[in-house]
Write a structure and sequence with these properties.
383 residues; Methylamine Dehydrogenase, Chain H; 34 strands; 4-stranded antiparallel β-sheet
């Protein structure tokens, strides 16, 4: 394996749907024949979940729209083409893209970037909402763009990566790799970490790509496909990879969860796991929502199981988010569930909307942001 290092550089959603295969109905949150969700259990709250403000951006349709959080600002988009920047429940600016959109917003302090359903990347000034540029890439995009410094990286639904100049939208490079014949329809984005781009791919691979030129630096094996049929061999990396200065971690569908040493790519640990939405981690735990909607906490240094919360079975649970002493997930009935980080016990609950929460919650300070499929944006504080 060719060595790579994230240590030398400063360090930095998802859901997956079956592609062309009706044999995976459990991966589709919009399926009409979904199994009956587990009833909500009573518990004694040990945390307070306080709605700070709400706003509405518009419906997501059959797509997944993740909001972007930069400081006090929340950037959000909707299927019909609305894009907005919110602060304290007020729209600082709101524009129409003039075309349907297919993915949420990628943003930093300079740009807010979205992608139209016909494959045009649009960049807006993050402060004023004025359009900076449009760049056609001619491919479907389901994941929010990654914006970092002078580059915007977009992942297409056929698993190509396009890097565009953040100044004018001109194309810098395209990264293409071979993929197995059957793969998940992934809403997971990519991560820009210093001089590299990290992206999960079909076949259980975590790619490390040069941000400068799109060259493949290495591929880390999260899991290897197993089984006699193509369906059994689906082992795609699910969700956006999570990183620190020393480790990079990811989980795959029908495969494993694994963490790697960021300085050389060596595997630190791996555990058999199956997830179609992904994981989060902090300095103590790696937390994963598995494909049975159980939330699992693993020791981040050894991969040993710490706790498992299986009281949300069949509720369409999102990728988890670690916020302080808590773990936050949303579900397909619009509920937000807060679990105690150390034990997995239910700590608080609130219903953000009557429509599903499919996009993963996003951290904001000591709280978090959720966006429902009907477009309600809720900012919560945890106390």
């Amino acid at each position: 394996m060719k060595p790579f290092s994230l240590r030398a550089f400063p360090m930095v959603a998802a859901i997956a749907l079956a592609t062309g295969c009706s044999s995976l109905p459990s991966l589709n949150p919009f399926a009409s024949s979904a199994p009956k969700p587990a009833p909500l259990v009573d518990f004694k709250p040990t945390a307070r979940i306080v709605p700070v403000w709400e706003a509405n951006i518009g419906k997501a349709g059959t797509y997944v729209f993740q909001p972007a959080v930069v400081g006090d600002s929340v950037y959000a988009a909707a299927r019909a083409g609305d894009v907005a920047r919110f602060e304290n429940g007020r729209a600082v600016w709101r524009v129409r893209a003039g075309s349907d959109l297919s993915a949420g917003v990628g943003a930093d302090g300079s740009l807010a970037v979205v992608v139209t359903a016909d494959g045009k990347v649009i960049a807006y000034d993050a402060q004023t909402g004025s359009e900076r540029w449009r760049s056609p890439i001619g491919a479907e995009v389901l994941a929010p763009p990654a914006v970092g410094g002078d580059v915007v990286v977009v992942r297409t639904s056929d698993h190509r990566l396009f890097a565009l100049n953040a100044r004018d939208g001109s194309r810098r490079w395209v990264y293409t790799r071979s993929n197995p014949p059957l793969a998940l329809r992934s809403y997971a984005g990519v991560v820009i970490e210093g001089a590299v781009v990290l992206a999960g791919f079909p076949g259980g691979k975590l790619g490390v790509v040069s941000l400068a030129n799109g060259g493949a630096i290495t591929e880390l094996t999260v899991s290897a496909p197993r089984g006699a049929t193509e369906l059994e061999r689906v082992a795609d990396v699910a969700g956006t990879p999570v990183t620190t200065r020393r480790e990079v971690c990811a989980v795959s569908y029908q495969g494993r969860a694994a963490c790697f040493d960021a300085s050389n790519g060596n595997a630190l640990w791996a555990r058999d796991f199956s997830s179609s939405v992904g994981m989060d981690r902090d300095t103590r735990f790696a937390v994963i929502t598995d494909d049975r909607d159980a939330v699992n906490a693993l020791d981040v240094y050894s991969g040993a199981s710490v706790w498992k919360q299986d009281g949300l079975a069949r509720r369409g649970v999102t990728r988890p988010l670690l916020v302080g002493d808590n773990v936050v997930v949303g579900d397909a009935q619009g509920f937000v569930h807060v679990l105690a980080r150390d034990t997995g016990a239910f700590a608080a609950r609130d219903r953000a909307d009557s429509s599903a929460i499919v996009a993963p919650p996003r951290a904001q300070g000591t709280g978090f942001v959720v966006q429902s499929q009907d477009g309600r944006i809720t900012v919560y504080e945890l106390r």
